[in-house]
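Co-fold these.
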Amino acid sequence: MRKNWLGTWVGFVLIMAWCLLPVVWIVSLSFKSAAETTAGSPQFFPKAWTTQNYKDIIDNPDFTRALLNSAGIALSATFLSVVLATLAAYAIARLDFRGKRAVLSLALAIAMFPVVSLVGPLFDMWRTFHLFNTWPGLVIPYMSFTLPLSIWTLSAFFREIPWEMEQAAQVDGATAWQAFRKVIVPLAAPGVFTAAILTFFFAWNEFVLAISLTSTTASRTVPAQMAYFVGADQFNPPYSQLATASVVVTVPVVILVLLFQRKIVAGLTSGAVKG
Amino acid sequence: MAAIEMRNIVKKYGDGFPAVNDVSIDVEDGEFMILVGPSGCGKSTLLRMIVGLEDITSGDMVIGGKRVNALAPRDRNLAMVFQNYALYPHLSVFENIAFPLRLAGRPESEVESKVRDASKTLELDEHLQRKPGNLSGGQRQRVAMGRAIVRDADAFLFDEPLSNLDAKLRGQMRTEIARLQKRLGITTVYVTHDQTEAMTLGDRVAVLRRGVLQQLATPRELYTQPVNLFVAGFIGSPPMNFLPAQVNGDQLELPFGSVTLPKDKAAKAEGRGVIIAGIRPEHFNDAAVLDAQTKAKGATFTAHVDVVEWLGHEAYAYVPFEASPDVADQLAELERDLDGESIRTQLVIGLDANSTIAKGEDAEIWVDSSEVHLFDPATGENLTLST
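Predicted complex below.
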């Protein structure tokens, strides 16, 4: 027993170190002064802790604007994607219609399509439609690319919900819409949150489209904006500034996961029917 | 409250298979009607057509004098208890029961008082704030019933409500449902595959087989006057014994010997060749424990008893026999219809608890010949019905 216990802990520490070391490294970088990061061989922890990097980055109007763009675009894309995916997944799980398999396969095909190959066509199209360098210009592709995964996740969740729930609601006097809204959606909440988190991550971290379809801070998101963080010259990249921006941009994601983790409670449907 | 009339109801699925075939049943206002049959007989489909969850292929469904074929479930004002309860897991017991009232947009005070009434009736008061996931099977069952009774629905529909409970609880809930139905006096249609529930709960019982209504009668009539082999074999536990037999004059020739039949019964089956005789276990007895007068009403024969089961208030003796091939097929098919597994080539004999017959003995067995049913082996029809 004791041996097992020891093995578990050794494994645990190894895996944690493997996963967290880069994160700790970035955090530690963000507290170092610029002088320290440009020194030949920087040590792991800062010699002198400083919050100057954070002050600088908050004072940088380009960065705060990018943060706002990121938040706006990611939230809009998530909201639209989840709403559409919920409706589509419900139809796929519940209704029998021609072309159901086609819809699902097509959705999967879209998910497998390499994003890079669409950059050129989208660039031209968005310029024609005056969507270049606008929020919708990024929201639309983000939504399209995350819909398939959301639809697949959610239709799996809907299939798990016993159909009797809905029939019971209908017998109790609910319209199809009421049954959906008051019974099915609350039961699928873990699925909805899962889909929402995945979509948000994608939109929040996406780089290729963000850098190709924007030209100014009017719609440039944080990952793209960070590419414009250049130091005094090309031989002195602002490592500490980049690390700070990374920390700032990661914090909301961590908070989101911690918040929603509580919502994603396995077995929410337990007790609905005899297990 | 309302009467439910089913007129020539047919349900065909996509492949043209009729799950319910030309069924007509009148459920009177306030009546407790049971739909019973083995799995796949169409009883649940029929119930779901009443409530509107299943389309009706042809025929008329009339509730309270109004044809409802085209109405959505929510417009039929019926309350249903599902086999697996179908409680809303995200809502408390209170909100589960209140759900139909909230949908109907009733004022808060009315919701409150009705839910309190229902929870009092069903003894759910201390559980109102809990979630269904934390309740026991019996409590969930009561919540499902609570959701049905708050509605002032025209009728209650139950779809095998007790099949998920253990045997003891099932017995308790059965009497609970019977009591509730009598008190509320509401029209009830109850689906079950359990013949004990059918016999104890129903005012009348409809027996279905492969989507066809076999017999619609009171439990007593089903038991004493089954119209065919299927009903005879389905109703009663242990089930009726079926034996190959032949009628010669007033003698019924059974595998164990001859028995004298009452004249009228013999006349109905005379000259038909091999037929099937159906005799319930309790119409046999140990000849040694009977007085001369009772004994004279029937006939006796000697049989080799294989096994004896003594249950205290009664005992069962098992006597194996060989079925002739022409009736064996019919009996095997019946067995399949009844979801059975044993190949019934043994006679089950009910014995008086005082009987001293032991296993492996040759015993003198008495049979009440007036209670023998005779069935046509080809159609399964009961030849000895007293009309």
